[in-house]
């Protein structure tokens, strides 16, 4: 029993051993699948859920409050983190999470990790390993345990590589350097805890594509990330479409309600409470008359309305 307990305990570490043989620095497809069984769609080659590109783009237009409300109703209460330094706060960023956990280094941990990295043909320092794995639409998101000085996970060289591979930026519970150089990369954005001229020291990758912690939130590989000036929402892949469609529907209701209030057709009391059948019918007709305002497909809208309780 004691030996079994120890094996289970070690297997829960980001970088672990079994029978004294080092395992991969990154989670396997089987491990990622175990954490994302509710996702039924396409997957990336590394096993992460592949939330469709079109959904990533639509998510940029939903509000954090709307997304937060849907997740809370689904029982996901640890999905929002605020308090960031944002490079371009007026430019929202969405993408699929490629997660990385960094750890304070010590020789008996760092040396085996580096040896394993060599066996896996990984190049350069460990903070560049995740960059080599990025694909279009990914966001490199890392738990850098809040380290600022000597915790700069990237500078402008790595920033250029990140943007070339992903078309996105980064989210670091840690720091970055070369701010002016990073700002020169058009389209690149960053949510970090700070900037510092130092270079990364005494840190090592613990695991890639494993569940990680960002602030008070847990992030899984493949999560849909919605980053805005207020903070960041981490949306489980299997709920991505539901969150986006629900949020879009709420926004449509608000647009319709504001319009009718300006026209004086309904009172604030009627719009701010449960809608009666007259308002519902008027709203549904407004949707038909204004298809250009409806971001979801007709199939998604009809499916949503069937389960809608208003």
TrEMBL record:
One term of GO molecular function = metal ion binding
> Which residues hold substrate?
155-158, 177
Q: Which domain of life is it from?
A: Bacteria
Cofactor(s) listed in the protein's UniProt record: Mg(2+)
Q: Where is the segment annotated Disordered?
A: 107-126
Entries under Gene3D superfamilies matching the protein: Ribonuclease E inhibitor RraA/RraA-like
The residues that the entry says bind Mg(2+) are: 178
Task: Report the InterPro entries cross-referenced here.
Answer: RraA/RraA-like (IPR005493), RraA/RraA-like_sf (IPR036704)
Biased composition (Basic and acidic residues) is annotated at 107-123
Q: Which Pfam families does the entry mention?
A: RraA-like
Q: Which UniProt keywords apply?
A: Magnesium, Metal-binding
Q: What is this protein called?
A: Regulator of RNase E activity RraA
Q: Which organism is it from?
A: Rhabdobacter roseus
């Amino acid at each position: 029993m004691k030996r079994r307990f120890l094996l289970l305990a070690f297997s829960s570490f980001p970088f672990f051993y079994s029978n004294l043989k080092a395992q991969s620095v990154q989670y396997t497809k089987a491990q990622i699948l175990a954490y994302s069984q509710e996702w039924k769609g396409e997957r990336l080659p590394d096993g992460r859920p592949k939330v469709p590109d079109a959904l990533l783009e639509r998510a940029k237009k939903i509000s954090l409050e709307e997304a937060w409300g849907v997740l809370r109703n689904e029982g996901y209460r640890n999905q929002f983190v605020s308090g960031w330094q944002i490079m371009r706060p007026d430019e929202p960023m969405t993408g699929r999470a490629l997660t990385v956990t960094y750890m304070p280094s010590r020789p008996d941990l760092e040396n085996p990790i580096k040896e394993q990295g060599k066996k896996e043909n990984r190049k350069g320092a460990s903070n560049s390993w995740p960059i080599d794995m990025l694909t279009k639409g990914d966001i490199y998101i890392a738990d850098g345990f809040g380290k600022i000085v000597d915790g700069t996970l990237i500078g402008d060289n790595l920033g250029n590589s990140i943007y070339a591979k992903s078309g996105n930026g980064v989210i670091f519970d840690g720091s970055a350097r070369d701010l002016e150089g990073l700002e020169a990369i058009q389209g690149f954005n960053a949510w970090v805890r700070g900037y510092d001229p130092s270079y990364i020291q005494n840190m090592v990758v613990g695991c890639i594509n494993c569940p990680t912690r960002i602030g008070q939130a847990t992030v899984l590989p493949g999560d849909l990330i919605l980053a805005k000036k207020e903070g960041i929402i981490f949306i489980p892949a299997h709920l991505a479409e539901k969150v986006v469609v629900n949020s879009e529907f709420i926004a449509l209701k608000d647009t319709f309600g504001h319009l009718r209030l300006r026209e004086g057709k309904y009172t604030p009391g009627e719009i701010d409470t449960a809608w009666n059948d007259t308002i519902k019918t008027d709203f549904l007709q407004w949707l038909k008359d204004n298809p250009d305002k409806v971001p979801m497909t007709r199939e998604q809208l009809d499916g949503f309305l069937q389960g809608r309780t208003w």
